Amino acid sequence: MKINEIFKSIQGETSYSGLPCTFIRITGCNLRCSYCDTTYAYEEGKEMSVDSILEYTRGCKTKLICITGGEPLSNSGVSSLIRELLKENYTVLVETNGSYDIRTIPREAIRIMDVKCPGSKMSHLMHWQNIGYLTKLDEVKFVLTSREDYDWMKGVIQKYDLSKITNITLGTAFNTVSPRSVVRWALEDNLEIRFQLQIHKYLWEPNTRGV
Please, where are the H alpha helices in 38-96? Predict the structure, then answer.
């Protein structure tokens, strides 16, 4: 499969934030979100076998693996890679944009699914049936760019009773809506969410690759 980059860093998002993690960034994405910070992964990359990917990840010596993109599910070989990583007893996170059927991800992996807000310009491509496939092992992630996105997110949480289905994380697109404002709104509305900042963008320059 075509791999954009593999690197070891600190997990900057999700409920696993702060943990040492090996990232496998897969080339290719079917969406073009307005705030995308990995546009270089749309096409850049090199072909790697599953064996060579496994060899590289073993050298990183982390217990946590995050498969990201781009969009991992745009590559038909990703399920095989996930299964091989699970066999080696890694905790595997799969970050997906919510537009593909997540049932292709082995159930032992942890699915981190975006719910694309209107500010992303991609919410019309959500595969809403995915919500019915989520479990308490998984997470959904909302990335906000405005108060309008926040109100839309609140409606989705209420419509699907999301807090009873899975874990909800909430963050902001870098340099858009104020994180402090979003936290205040969430507290006022008593939302059952986990707020997150993109830690890696505060540890390094925001556009730094491989971190």
Answer: 50-60, 78-87
